[in-house]
Known about the structure:
Blueprint lengths: L3 H24 L10 H7 L5 H14 L9 H4 L4 H14 L3 E4 L7 E4 L5 H7 L11 H10 L5 H14 L5 H19 L4 H14 L11 H10 L5 H13 L6 H11 L3 H13 L5 H7 L5 H12 L7 H7 L6 H15 L4 H6 L6 H12 L15 H14 L5 H7 L5 H17 L6
Antiparallel strand pairs: 1-2
Helix pairs in contact: 1-3, 3-5, 5-8, 6-8, 7-8, 8-10, 9-10, 9-11, 10-12, 11-12, 12-14, 13-14, 14-16, 15-16, 16-18, 18-20, 20-21, 21-23, 22-23
Amino acid sequence: MFTTLNVISHRNYRSVFTCAAFALALALPRTAVAQVQFEDAIKDLSSENASVRLKTLQALRDAGYPEAAVPVPNLIIDTQDNVQRQAIATELDLFLAEKVTSRKDLEPTVEKRDSLGAQAAFERGPLVVSLRPVPSEVLNALRVAAHDENPRVASEALYAFGALTSQLDAAPRSILQRVSEQDLVTLLEGRNSSLREAAAQVIGRFYARRPSDPPVVAAIGDALLASLNDKDHAVRMAALRALGEIRYEPAVQVLTDLINTHVKGDEIDGALDALARIASPSSAALFREQLKSKSIARRTVAVEGLARLNGTVKLGEIQTALAKEQEDEVQLAQSFAATMLADAPIDQLGEALVRPRLHDQARRYLIELARGHANRFGRHAIDPDSRIRVEVAEILTLAGDSSALPLVTPLASDQDPAVAFAGGRAVAQLRQTGAKPAS
């Protein structure tokens, strides 16, 4: 049975391929028949002529036909670099989510997103990828290609892997995590600094600790800890971020020592942020000390860390320490703490979603607050501002809590096409994952 989103996607792909059949005929060599069948195009993927393979990939990419996903992975590990890169781009395009476009004088339409490079797609976050299951053949080929001797091919494969794994359900994600451990550790220890940075970023996304996840294995966490000694600053920063995302508790003492003795500037910020995400009670004293910092970023992160220590910290001590605080970022963090520690309403956080400077910070807080508490978003789900309704649908999607279904289901029928699209995706994903509320 198709959900609303599935029906849109299915019709769209069929329409795209029908219109693209003639384009395929033109794009393939002149020896191809005028009415090129899909099977004929797939045969040309095995051609000994690299130009034929490349042109066929481009045609399949332009057509956007989903059945091409399974035959294409063989070319991700092709002998020709340009064929590999085209194969990676083709797979990525096949799994990018659609987008809504509309004008006041036209009916809204759903269309394929603009093509994105692998790194750009990864940086856009999980919602850039559609809900169609990515075949294991694709993910395995990308994992292998991430070791390619051409750093550009390897980088694109690695970022594509990181982007496309974001929609995996718990069971296949866990299996792939185990299979991928050594591959990613090897990349993290490699000679190319850009690949080491990419590996740390992908680890942070792929192994990010979910409420029901067991602790991340030591092989991954310890490899990130070793990367804190990397000669490349960008690699060290990516490793710090990843340690926080995977909530690697054995890192607490190392990170604390870094702050107290070894690092300066943004690496202190990165280590403090990692500690705030890990949220060990042993870090409470450090966070309290940082409330007095001259740095806006450090005061903000200190509040975040204390906010996650419910049972160890009282809201009043944060409010007292920051009674004269004037900076918006720190005040917003205090609103987050008020909800975490005292179940305060999320109104100020919701309002910050339409303030460009505070948007990302507020959205990050709200995703965390939504897990197990979707009822907090009831008023915002019917906000007159369509931007807020879109944000609510996306936040509840990313929170992955199926108790939000009663809130997002009406959004799938919203009169605003962007809201309806975001709501439809939320319904589809929350039904598909069957996620449990966070404990």
